[in-house]
Amino acid sequence: MIDTVPVVIGAVVFSVAFGWLTFHVMKLRRIVMQVPEEGGVFESLRRLDRDLGTIEETVVEMVPRLQSIESRLPHAIQYTAVVAFDAYEDVGGRLSRCLALLDQLGTGIVVTLLVSRNETRWFTKEVEGGVGAEELSAEEAEAIRRALGTMPR
Q1: Residue 62 in 3-state DSSP?
Q2: Distance between the two ends of the chain, CA-based, in angstroms?
């Protein structure tokens, strides 16, 4: 009579090995199905390598440009506000304006337009750190305050 224990163990080992091989063959089949038909795997890898080289060159070229932009960014106009008001008693409609133009540090200018019946006058005043370099009108100070109010804390 044949001893069934070794046959059962052999069948189990064979089944496990067959299952393991089937799993890996299916995995390889999925990978092979993704390979383009024209040019083959090596041509696809060469093309990918060329594309990656081009991308790396582009990134290397962009780094100094980005650093230059970042170094200038604090000095770019980032915060603005406009205050409308009546500059003269005989002219209504709030046609006069104060415009604050400030950078990241609260430095910039305030432009004031005074509109009358016969003419429009305009003035500029410097602002450093949110403070006027010379005496400010109430409207100019309000424009600066509003612009600074939009700055992140």
Answers
A1: helix
A2: 90
Q: What are phi and psi of 96, to 5 degrees?
A: -80, 155
Torsions phi, psi for 130 (to 5 deg): 85, 5
Give the Cα separation of 41 and 91 in Å (integer): 79
Which strands make up the sheet holding 108-115, listed edge to edge? 79-85, 96-102, 108-115, 120-128, 131-132
**Tokens for 27?**
């995995």
pLDDT tens digit sequence for 26-64: 888 887 777 666 667 777 778 888 888 888 888 888 888
Are the C-beta atoms of residues 130 and 102 closer than 8 Å to each other?
A: yes
- For 5-30, give the secondary structure using H, E and C: HHHHHHHHHHHHHHHHHHHHHHHHHH
Amino acid type, 24? H
Q: Which residues contact 144 (CB under 8 A, 6 or more apart)?
A: 81, 100, 102, 110, 127, 130, 132, 136
Range 125-152 average pLDDT: 90
Token representation of residue 102: 């400030």
Cβ atoms of 85 and 94 closer than 8 Å: yes
Return the closest-CA partner of residue 135 out of 144, 150, 151, 81: 144
